[in-house]
Amino acid sequence: MPVKNQDELNLIDKIVHISRVAKVVKGGKRFSFSAIVVVGDGNGKVGFGLGKANEVPEAIRKGIEKAKKGMISVPIMNGTIPYESLGKFGAGKVFMKPASEGTGVIAGGAVRAVIESVGIKNILTKCLGSHNPHNVVKATMEALKQLKTPEDVRKKLGKEKREITFAPPQA
């Protein structure tokens, strides 16, 4: 059995949605399953995967493997995101807004799974357009990919530290 590295031991995986898919064949229907899984370390890294198989546990395992391969890093400042972000995928849109300390995670099912896996403690979100879990998870990931740290923005603009600051929201 392969030895897992230290990072893999404390990953959080959440099952967002499991679909039963039927293929109609000559003798009747053949059922298979697809599972959307979100994997994160609770400290700024998150990924999602779609696994398909004839049994649910196998679909979930495949989804987890794909999610681990496609993990992204997200900047977290004081338990929230640095600024507002809007992610779009297909007909699904997810709007994210930083929240002050003590607000908690204000998010629906698919968005909540991604946000909790990445380790954000205070955030306001709104799902616009499609509520299909596939599109919502991908739109949420797109919104998180857009986020940059203040240092990255400063480097890109060539500004000094005191010239650009992201102010946390006031209570």
Task: List strands and helices in order, with pairings.
Blueprint (H helix, E strand, L loop, with lengths): L5 H4 L2 E14 L2 E13 L4 E9 L2 H14 L2 E2 L11 E5 L2 E7 L6 E2 L2 H10 L4 E7 L3 H14 L3 H8 L14
Parallel strand pairs: 7-8
Antiparallel strand pairs: 1-2, 2-3, 3-4, 5-6, 6-8
Helix pairs in contact: 3-4
Quick structural summary:
The chain has 171 residues and is of the alpha+beta class. It has helices spanning 6-9, 56-69, 109-118, 133-146, 150-157, and strands spanning 12-25, 28-40, 45-53, 72-73, 85-89, 92-98, 105-106, 123-129. The strands form two sheets. Strands 1-2-3-4 form a four-stranded antiparallel beta sheet.
Structure description:
The chain is α+β, with helices and mostly antiparallel strands. It folds into two domains: 6-72, Double Stranded RNA Binding Domain; 73-157, Ribosomal Protein S5, domain 2. Helix content is 29%, strand content 35%. The chain has five helices and eight strands. Strands 1-2-3-4 form a four-stranded antiparallel β-sheet. The chain has a four-stranded mixed β-sheet with strand order 5-6-8-7. A hairpin with a 2-residue loop joins strand 5 (85-89) and strand 6 (92-98). Helix 3 packs parallel to helix 4 (133-146). The longest helix has 14 residues, at 56-69. The termini are far apart. Residues 1-6 have low confidence and may be disordered.
